[in-house]
Amino acid sequence: MKVRSRVISAVALLMGFYLIGFGLLGLVIVIDALVLAIPWFDAGKGKFVVLSLIFVFPTVRGMLARRDPEDRKPPGVPITEGDEPVLWQRIRELAHHVGTRPPAEIRLISDVNAAVQENARFLGLIPGKRRMYIGVPLLIGLTRSEFDAVIAHELGHYANHDTRMAGLIYRGRRGVLRTVELYGRARGTDSVMFRLYKAYAERYLRTTQAISRGQELAADLDAVRIAGRANAAAALRQIPALDAAFEFYMSRYVTTGWDLGLLPSPNEFFVGFARMLTAPPRQAELDAIRAEPPEQEAHPFDSHPPIQERIAMIEALPDDGRPLDDKNARATMLLRDPQAAFTVLARSTLADEAAQKRIVDWPTLMHEAGRARAAEGAQPLVEAVTAATGRPDALVALLDLVDQGRRSEVTARLALPEEVAHTTGRVRAEHQKTLLSWMLRPLTELNLAERGAARWAIDWAEIDRFELRAGAPVSLDDALDAVLAQSPDSRAMRALLGA
């Protein structure tokens, strides 16, 4: 009865969309027929018919745009039961406990997400092939029980028959929004139709998204029943933390050498993410996100309730006595060979990019990326020193000016940011000195790296870590401080460069 009522609701809304479209088409046909029947209106009949067809054209396109290609390739890579028997067995067990049929296909994806799909037929009334998507970052970041909660949630969509409606609701949303978009590009009389379809689209989205939000809350209860209240809530707290961590990892590690044409090896792609998660400073950052998930503003068109609302609902349930899972019991233990599975997915994910990039190990990637950033950061200082001295060896030339008491000849040539460019006198000199300190470090690092005295190292707890070789006579910070002091001294820097 629940399935039928949901299908009837969704179909009724789609019928409204069609009724508007076919009603408009019928009205235009009747008007065109009446106009063509007027004997004294010969000159403008053709133009009137053309204009009327243009008027309804967005409606026709919107209705026809609803269908998606049936052969669209699903994302990720499939894993068979022969590949990962333990994972398949666990998902079958969870499906049995939830009370539903397990998926016929499991695919690993690179997103911080898990999802289910069912190719149901006849408006969702006839079951179809089931497919489950599991994000590798979830396998890496969740405990066994947290993973059970996530999978039970997705299987709950099967048990509640939500996936049968998903295709119908999605195609309906796509068609309505497509029609609104097409009318929104038009002008004149089409603006009337735009307002009509916009109002209908809002009603349709509010109704179908309310159904989707109810489905999410119901699936959360399945997660609680299977994994326990504490683990279900912990899994929801983990998701925004892992999402932020993976975004940071992709932007600051994986793609740090993108403009240089460099990418990490597929063998190390997900391994690096796992190492970053275990770095103590990163764990502290993730704990902060888990304790206070980012605020999400509720919107009537959201398909998911805000995650804070879902966590609050779960934590408000009576204590079921089941404790949090051991943090050492990672979900990756369900995989027979995590490294092999992750490498296959990484190769698939990076396939197009890897064909145009050079694959390197992590130390090479971080060193080359650090070198490029240092060269960019030092460039204005190099230009200022070259203009002041005419010498190509910018750092040594700068140190010579420092020893001669002529440091200001360089700082005066540094272009200050717009917000402080108007300053004068001592204030301006302080701003220029600060600018010099920002640029002197990358210039020094670049010189030390070129001399083989240091390199940028891979560090999962610190970005742009610069390491001096063992036996350096002085620290880099001390050498920089001496050059930037009120009474500057270049001896420590020269000793560092000489070493």
Across the major sheet, the strand order is 1-2-4-3
Low-confidence stretches: 66-71
Mean pLDDT: 83
Oligomer: single chain
Query: Structural class, from secondary structure content?
Result: alpha/beta
- CA distance, first residue to last residue: 81 Å
Descriptive report:
The protein is an alpha/beta fold and 499 residues long. Helices cover 63% and strands 6% of the residues. The protein has helices at 2-37, 45-64, 85-98, 136-141, 144-159, 162-184, 190-227, 229-254, 266-278, 280-291, 307-315, 338-349, 351-354, 362-389, 394-403, 408-411, 425-450, 476-484, 491-498; strands spanning 77-78, 105-109, 114-118, 130-135, 262-264, 358-360, 454-457, 465-468. The strands form three sheets. Strands 1-2-4-3 form a four-stranded mixed sheet. It has a two-stranded parallel sheet with strand order 5-6. The protein has a two-stranded antiparallel sheet with strand order 7-8. α1 (2-37) runs antiparallel to α7 (190-227) and α7 crosses α8. The radius of gyration is 31 Å and the shape is extended. It starts with a helix and ends with a helix.
Q: Could you name the key traits of this structure?
A:
8 strands, four-stranded mixed beta sheet, 19 helices, alpha/beta
Protein topology:
Layout: H1 2-37, H2 45-64, E1 77-78, H3 85-98, E2 105-109, E3 114-118, E4 130-135, H4 136-141, H5 144-159, H6 162-184, H7 190-227, H8 229-254, E5 262-264, H9 266-278, H10 280-291, H11 307-315, H12 338-349, H13 351-354, E6 358-360, H14 362-389, H15 394-403, H16 408-411, H17 425-450, E7 454-457, E8 465-468, H18 476-484, H19 491-498
Parallel strand pairs: 2-4, 5-6
Antiparallel strand pairs: 1-2, 3-4, 7-8
Helix pairs in contact: 1-2, 1-6, 1-7, 2-6, 3-5, 5-7, 5-8, 6-7, 7-8, 8-9, 8-10, 8-11, 9-12, 14-15, 14-17, 18-19
